[in-house]
Amino acid sequence: MSVPLEDLVSKYEKGSSESLLSLLQEIQDEMGYLNEEVITMVGERLNLPASKVYGIATFFDQFRFTAPGRYHIRVCRGTACHMNGSMNVLKAVERLLKITDGQTTRDGFFSLEAVSCIGACSNGPVVSINGLFFNALTADELAKVLDNYRKKPQ
After folding, report:
1. I want to staple 76 with a disulfide (CB 3.0 to 4.6 A). Which of 97, 110, 118, 147 is the partner?
2. 72-108, pLDDT tens digit by residue?
3. Do residues 40 and 80 both lie within one domain?
4. What's the number of domains the chain is made of?
5. For the chain, what is the HEC assignment?
């Protein structure tokens, strides 16, 4: 984490619950996820019970509560991608990595997230790995892409 958590939280006015979502998003952008320490610290800063902060964070599907893998795979499940076979792609990733949506491999290398829409509807099905897009992958092509990521230097 390049910015200390305390510095992120201190930018927000103490007791200002209106800034809760912005603060949580900024922390997740920096850390990659929200953990118990974050929930507690944000609650103290904004004068909210930790249970309220957690309840609001879990309401929005944009927030994660476990650390993403080194390579975060997002599979688009929007209508256009679905019509072009994104369920087959998602199942292929799950089979190849032995994880399901929302999980991270034991080695911490890959995490998987099925998302509502990536916004590249004409190219579906679309897979994003750390923001790099792959269009219309077959299961064999997907296996090669994942192997290439496994071979990258640490």
Report:
1. 118
2. 999 999 999 999 999 999 999 999 999 999 899 999 9
3. no
4. 2
5. CCCCHHHHHHCCCCCCHHHHHHHHHHHHHHHCCCCHHHHHHHHHHHCCCHHHHHHHHHHCCCCCCCCCCCEEEEEECCHHHHHCCHHHHHHHHHHHHCCCCCCECCCCCEEEEEECCCCCHHHCCEEEECCEEEECCCHHHHHHHHHHHHHCCC
